[in-house]
Amino acid sequence: MKKRIFAALLSMGIFSPFTWAQQVTFFTPSTVRIVKDAPNYQKRTGDDLSLVVTAKPSKVAVKILTQDNATTYSTSALTVKVEPKIGRVTFLDKKGNVLMQEGSYDFKRIADGPDQGRFKVSQTFALEKDEPIYGVGLLQNGKMSQRGEHRLMIQTNLEDFAHFFQSVKGYGIYWDNYSPTRLDDDNVLKLESQVGTKVDYYFMYGGNADGVIKEMRQLTGHVPMLPLWTYGFHQSRERYKTSQELLNVVDTYRKMKIPFDGIIQDWQYWGSNYLWNAMDFLNEDFSNYRQMIDHVHGINAHLSISIWASFGPQTLQFRELKDKNLLYDFMTWPNSGLSSWPPNMDYPSGVRCYDPYSKDAREIYWKHLSRLHKAGVDAWWMDSTDPDHNFKDSDLDQVRAITDPATGKDFDGSWRSVRNAYALACVEGVHDNQIKADSSRRPFILTRSYFAGQQRTGANTWSGDISSSWDSFRKQVPICLNYTLTANPNVNTDIGGFFANAYNKSYLDNTATKNPLYQELYVRWMQFGVFCPMMRSHGTEVYRELYHYGKPGEVIYDALLDAVKMRYQIMPYIYSQSWKVSKNDDSFMRALVMDFKNDKETWNNNREFMFGPSFLVAPVVKALYTPETANMTDEISGWDKNKKSLYQEGFKADWSAKKTYEVYLPKGATWYDYWTGTKIDGGQIIKSDVTIAHSPLYVKAGSIIPICTKEVQYANIADWQSLDIKVYPGADGSFTLYEDEGDGYNYKHGKCSEIKFSWNEKSRTLTVNKRRGSFDGMHANRTFRVVLPNGDSKIINYNGSKSTVKL
């Protein structure tokens, strides 16, 4: 009988020959789950819940060998060595090189409260002294490698955690626990979660960062295609106070020929705080909202709208959720029912967060949100999915009914036990319900928080209510890159920073738009935004619309406009990369270590990154034309009306001056200056010539980049009939131009096209291969102008058949 049971476990890739309290389960040849059950624990319903892992173990060929008090499990990619007497697991690659070795683990029984009888669980991991690790989450610490960190991982406005990290050695670890978790690294990295019944983690070996990301997405979900328009420019402000104010912005943009695709309506369109997040236009200043939405659509733009995870006591949602005990009982923002600042607690708001772990609650949420969906709102800005929590530790002890996504059954559990996955539950509830309700539009969600696995919703996370300062701006580069390294590709920041009042002459007088100190920061942030998965300008206290910064022909206005125009010029490149993200588990923003791991100079480079396979982006993250001054604010102090002004009366910047900026070009490649076409060897720091009009930008030799040369006002594949195909010699290269209908799901049924371009360095020929696939509205005939860095060019009239040109 025992042999039959063991054989069954072997066939499933599950092994426990040394103790039933410990399991080794292969999901793929490269991903293995390690479980160590707590001693003397009687299992309860929900203990095996997985909110994140969606994959099931596949059939994996495993060789098992037991000798010298150790058992090894070997696949084609990975060896796991288990020493049960000392409770240690070691991971090796197929050549026998040690990748990582566990240290100690521990269970501390919880004595009281709703989690009584469960445990604090911990595990240590012995890392090499100089071994960088990446990922972890959105950390506002300015670092690439997250070694040496000591912090409680719990979601907040400004920082979020995925319980996932990966090493430069090509492996990653996902810690499958959703409670607040301490991370402490003193050469030995320790994870300790506040609630658990087992040590439970997944070790995945990909060989490099891309391989690890691929394994993580195989385990927790792949990235869906987003609508084409979402990759255009999005304009926002805290907030448009009337529908007419919003329409004035979109009409002015079209009149001035400033390209944009999205306008975002922030909060209070619902009215008072007692109607917080009513998901309805109850504010009388938006009484004509249907005409507003129709007008936005009529000029080929899209409307995103702010929704929250909380509800005011006078909303329909609050009453329905309260009747079913689906509201949390803790204070959240806004504290007061009055809109004055600071909050007047004589009039508490009564706003409460809802319980997204309940399937019933998620369906109630969507039922009310569907009013906006049916009215034509295009996308959701899910704010405060951390959620905002005026923190008392005891709040985490609330008992909730949690719906197991695998079985659909409810069980009771403390909020503490699932705390960090709150955003995942919120976002997934909206994403999944919209897909059920509407097969014509791909969901698009912008959100302030995230957790591992959230990439399967396609949600785009922004980095919270950050300050408008150079220090804050610098931190956004590594924060986006480390987020990407947790297998979540869609990330962005508030272009210009959120809190900018310090640059005004006096409170909210909007003089920051003419203040050179803020102008320089805003321009550089906009240039960085060109190369983020979402390009979105937003913030409070200072207008963000481009036309407030001058007029055509003026330096700052032109620089801002040029950045937006460049976004649309490279849109064929971006949308093709989005296909690679979905189809091949690729990434948009790529830390240099992802592509140049053998160059140690890239390991901690927190200033530069690759955007897709070709662009090396080096945003200027320090002031070159103005004094760099500090604006030290956070999500609380940022609302202070008495901040010191950074306005310098009479200061004028010489925007015509030529400046230089240091850039490191990784070894292992040859590079081209995008602006001049100059060819430069890698493996060196160079002084790049810059102006206020552009930041340094380089292209890797062997790259092929499609450029939309038509002057466009919004993203539309119909405008891509004629493209420049920029070829950068020096190495063989290829690029696949992907196109589809821009929205909907016909692409899943083959209605899309791929055109592969191949450059042969030896023969100096570019081959445009036969087009694969088609879709309604596709251009059968195309004009491609092939352009070299020196300006030489040739025309290819393309009808879908293979064509070759020699340059």
Per the principal axes of the C-alpha atoms, what is the gross shape? globular
Question: What structural class do the secondary elements suggest?
Answer: alpha+beta
Low-confidence stretches: 1-20
Strand content: 25-35%
Report the strand count: 44
Q: How confident overall, as mean pLDDT?
A: 95
Strand order of the largest sheet: 4-5-6-7-8-9-15-14-11
- Rg (CA only): 27 Å
What kind of sheet is the major sheet? 9 strands, antiparallel
Number of discrete helical segments:
12
The helix content is 10-25%
End-to-end CA span? 72 Å
Question: What do you see in this structure?
Answer:
This protein has 807 residues and is of the alpha+beta class. The chain is 18% helix and 28% strand. The strands form 9 sheets. The protein has a 9-stranded antiparallel sheet with strand order 4-5-6-7-8-9-15-14-11, with no helix packed on it. It has an 8-stranded parallel sheet with strand order 27-26-25-22-19-18-17-28. Helix 5 packs antiparallel against helix 6, helix 6 packs across helix 7 and helix 9 runs parallel beside helix 10. The N terminus is likely disordered.
